[in-house]
Specification:
about 300 residues, 3 domains, 5-stranded mixed β-barrel, 13 strands
């Protein structure tokens, strides 16, 4: 019996890195099917050894969080990569992903790329004010700060094509050999390669989930946030929740709303509040009883 972490899962075959750094090829015991449990990349597991470097997963430890898409568990942080230009940031998409991360107990941080081309302070100002770490990355600067944040953590990277995600990873760890705009030499993935999730160990420490074809759109499909939960997914609201004049305040247009007062005073970003209102209005369309019945 050994303990380890699943770092790759393809068609029922799991690669487990043991606590002693050995790599094992494993399958899951049939008992998981009866318990309706599917082992995920990121899971802490107990493995019963068999011949050679193989074994059977017999226990999955309790997860602190998980995502449906990409299917991964025990994530420490979400690295949201956006660019100053080409493409311009979509703040609603950013705030949707950040809210989802907050809802799942995953710490978000933002990496702003292409700052050597244009000034990215307008993005940094919004998110540092909201209480998030922001790393500014240019062609020859900022990579070390990102590398330090990745060390010792399990991180999921989110970022649509064109934001410089591959360039960023390649600068952090050249051994990944991510060919920008082409197929990764190490990951062996191309446009039509079977999709799977895999954790890659960075030379400077830390594990990064690189998911073929993964975009922010996929992560949006990883779950829903009901309207009554949304205020807790905007951390800059925390000091003002409970201070509103009326209970059950939605923080959109009510009189005596402490959150709206903070927005007016510049203590909360109006951009972030606009995203909150959009997400709240979307959440109004979710029938909680119907969603729970389907899930």
């Amino acid at each position: 019996m050994v303990s380890g972490t699943i770092i790759k899962a393809v068609a029922g075959l799991y690669t487990v890195k043991t606590d002693e750094a050995a790599m094992l090829n494993c399958r899951a015991r049939g008992l998981f099917r009866h318990k309706d449990v599917t082992p995920l990349v990121g899971d802490k597991v107990q493995v019963e050894l068999s011949e050679g470097n193989s074994g059977y997963i017999i226990e999955v430890e309790e997860r602190k969080n998980q995502l449906v898409r990409p299917p991964i568990a025990n994530i420490d942080q979400l690295c949201l990569v956006v660019s100053v230009c080409d493409p311009l940031p979509n703040f609603l998409v950013m705030d949707r992903l950040i809210a989802l991360a907050e809802h799942r107990g995953i710490e978000p941080f933002i990496v702003v790329t292409k700052t050597d081309i244009e000034d990215g302070s307008f993005i940094s100002d919004i998110y540092t004010k909201a209480g998030f770490a922001v790393c500014m990355v240019g062609k020859e600067s900022g990579t070390e700060a990102v590398k330090e944040r990745l060390a010792g953590k399990i991180t999921v990277l989110a970022g649509n094509s064109g934001v410089g995600k591959s360039t960023l990873l390649n600068n952090i760890d050249p051994e990944l050999a991510l060919a920008v705009g082409e197929t990764s030499k190490k990951l062996g993935r191309g446009r039509h390669t079977t999709r799977h999730v895999e954790l890659f160990e960075l030379k400077g420490g830390g594990l990064v989930a690189d998911t073929p074809g993964f975009s922010s759109i996929e992560m949006e499909q990883s779950g829903v946030i009901f309207k009554d939960e949304l205020e807790n997914c905007f951390r800059e609201f925390e000091d003002y929740i409970g201070e509103c004049q009326f209970t059950g305040c939605s923080h959109r247009k009510e009189k005596g709303c402490a959150v709206l007062a903070a927005v007016k005073q510049g203590k909360i970003s109006s951009q972030r509040h606009e995203s909150y209102v959009s997400l709240y209005n979307e959440a109004l369309e979710i029938k909680e009883w119907e969603y729970n019945r389907k899930n």
